[in-house]
Specification:
single chain, 7 helices, 6 strands, two-stranded antiparallel ribbon, mainly alpha, globular
Length: 201
C-alpha cells in the first residue's frame, strides 16, 4: 500500500492510515500504524511534531498515559466512522461523535491558546504524545463545526478497494477519487480496456 496525504484535512489523512477501507477477497487491508512508534513517526512526517522528538517520545511512552497506542487507534476509528457516515449522507453514530469530543476535551488540558495580532490558535507545547494527537482531534472537531458536509467524500476506488476519505476543494465540487494518480488512473485504464474489448467483439 502506498501511503499518501490525499485527505486535504489532517484528521482525514489520519483516518486514511488504513487501506483499503473497502475490502475485497483478493486484497486485505493494511495498517500503517502498527505501534505507538509508527503513530509518532507518521505525526513527524505530516509535520505535527518535530522529527527529532520521536525517539524521546518512544522511550517515554508508557501504558499508563492517556495517549496509548490503543487509544490512538480508537480515536482514529471514531474519526473514520464519523466522516464515512457523513460522506454517505448518513448521520454519524452519537457514540463516535462523543468519542471525538471526549478526546478533544481530555487533550485540551495540555493545550495553550496563542493569540497574536491577526489570529488565535490552539497549540500543544512540549514533547509529548498528547502534542501529537491533540492537533489531529482538533482538526476533526473543526471539520465537523466548519466544514461543508457535501464536500466530504469517500473514494469508491478501483474495483471497490479504496474507501479513503477526502475533502473536495474543487471549484465545482466534482472530485471523485482520492488521487487521480492512483484510483483515478486505475479506473480510467480499466474503462479503456473494457472499451477496447467491446470494440473487438
Amino acid at each position: 500500500m502506498e501511503w499518501q496525504r490525499v485527505g486535504g484535512e489532517l484528521c482525514l489523512d489520519f483516518a486514511n492510515t488504513v487501506g483499503p477501507r473497502y475490502s475485497r477477497p483478493d486484497k486485505e487491508s493494511e495498517d500503517a500504524l502498527e505501534s505507538l512508534g509508527d503513530f509518532l513517526r507518521w505525526c513527524a512526517e505530516v509535520g505535527v511534531i518535530a522529527t527529532d522528538s520521536v525517539a524521546a517520545l518512544e522511550r517515554a511512552a508508557t501504558s499508563t498515559g492517556l495517549v496509548t497506542y490503543s487509544y490512538c487507534l480508537d480515536v482514529r476509528e471514531a474519526i473514520y466512522r464519523t466522516f464515512a457516515a457523513i460522506a454517505a449522507t448518513r448521520e454519524p453514530h452519537p457514540s463516535d461523535v462523543s468519542a471525538i469530543m471526549a478526546s478533544h476535551t481530555a487533550l485540551l488540558s495540555d493545550a495553550v491558546l496563542r493569540v497574536n495580532a491577526d489570529r488565535a490558535a490552539l497549540t500543544w507545547p512540549g514533547i509529548s504524545a498528547t502534542a501529537a494527537l491533540g492537533p489531529i482531534v482538533l482538526s476533526a472537531v473543526d471539520l465537523l463545526r466548519r466544514g461543508s458536509f457535501d464536500r466530504i467524500r469517500q473514494c469508491p476506488g478501483h474495483a471497490g478497494s479504496c474507501g479513503w476519505l477526502f475533502y473536495d476543494t474543487s471549484k465545482n465540487n466534482s472530485r471523485r477519487w482520492c488521487s487521480m494518480a492512483n484510483c483515478g488512473a486505475h479506473n480510467k485504464s480499466h474503462r479503456q480496456t473494457v472499451r477496447k474489448r467491446t470494440a473487438r467483439n
